[in-house]
Amino acid sequence: MGRGKADGKPRKRLFTTVLLLAIVGALFFLYSRKSGSSSIEYGSKSLKFGGDDSAIPKTIPVCDDRLSELIPCLDRNFIYQTRLKLDLTLMEHYERHCPMPERRYNCLIPPPPGYKIPIKWPKSIDQVWRANIPHTHLATEKSDQRWMVVKGEKIVFPGGGTHFHYGADKYIASIANMLNFPNNVINNEGRLRNVFDVGCGVASFGGYLLSSDVIAMSLAPNDVHENQIQFALERGIPAYLGVLGTLRLPYPSRSFELAHCSRCRIDWLQRNGILLLELDRILRPGGYFAYSSPEAYAQDEEDRRIWKEMSALVGRMCWKIASKRNQTVIWVKPLTNDCYLKREPDTHPPLCSPSDDPDAVWGVKMKACITRYSDQMHRAKGADLAPWPARLTTPPPRLADFNYSTEMFEKNMKQPLCICKGNAAYNIPPPYFA
Ligand SMILES: C[S@@+](CC[C@H](N)C(=O)[O-])C[C@H]1O[C@@H](n2cnc3c(N)ncnc32)[C@H](O)[C@@H]1O
């Protein structure tokens, strides 16, 4: 018995050791398989390269949670840390400043905690998930103006704004009415299609234009009205972060039929009217600027002074009042160069130099001058564009400025569109737009 007992102990110990080794081995195997198949590494800021083609990253790390709202070239921390010398009065700090390569993050931006699949269009125009943009500051700040309201897990948008507490839809109809557009519909039977809304807030103005087949590009910076553009985009309304500061807007000349500013709090008189001249550049011949602001109606001394000076400036720019009612004035830009050419010599603002390319915009400083029309446009007395939606497939007259004939345009439209992806090319027959 004694021997028997003594013989059983080593066997039991051996069995326990083998079992332990097997468990540790299995755990190690499972762990190494898991980390090997993972495509992300949390919190790291470096990309892993390797394999035959070293340009293809094998893993892309996820950025730290604190970077969930990082916008690389509009990063306030970058500006503070690198002490960029920017003129705050010109709003340069709201323009793009991209980090040098060694300061760039090579990681994936994580969604905020609790992120949900966004609410689908068209419902999204009225409501978004609060978790997706966890900022409720504007709801309290602008509660009297009905920009947005927090309701449980959602943020809802009643369509209000600083200037249109009772809904952008009624305000848009009143603008159409001021311009005598048929049936008070803002699209003016397809003649008004492209709108630029400067200082847009949460972009309700642009959002409510969509049902009239009018598209607006809305612009605002990440200033005290934080996250306004994030809300606009989550709602499904085209918008971008930026500012009327020192650089030209990223659009060629004569791109929009209407520019709009409701209480955008921009000093239009600064620097010889340079910001108003930038709006003038992007407006088509006969384009409108709808302006709703105290200067247009208030009777106190300061507002009257600004109104007088603005009226004189736009007069020298050859704009005329198309309509003025209640708190809104709508100016219209001339159709030809006639008025520009009739101005007294040395009138300010001057005409831009013939060497200025009004369509060069990327990183180009704004210029305090008037962009005259090409000879073709002057003769045509306007942009001569087909109304929407025929405009999609009708040759735009401005092609003549580039010596591009209607025949060339039509021939081009008949050719299949070649889309190249990797080494493959796909021929897509016209029409390209369904
Ligand atoms: C009082 S809010 C009006 C918002 C909206 N238009 C409305 O009526 O509800 C002023 C807006 O102008 C924007 N803003 C101020 N200065 C600007 C500038 N220089 N360029 C572009 N937007 C500007 C602000 O960020 C904000 O969106």
UniProtKB/TrEMBL annotation:
Matches recorded under InterPro entries: Put_SAM_MeTrfase, SAM-dependent_MTases_sf
GO biological process, any: methylation
Source domain of life: Eukaryota
Molecular function GO labels: methyltransferase activity
Main location: Golgi
Subcellular location: Golgi apparatus membrane; Membrane
Family, as annotated: Belongs to the methyltransferase superfamily.
Name of the protein: Methyltransferase
Organism: Glycine max
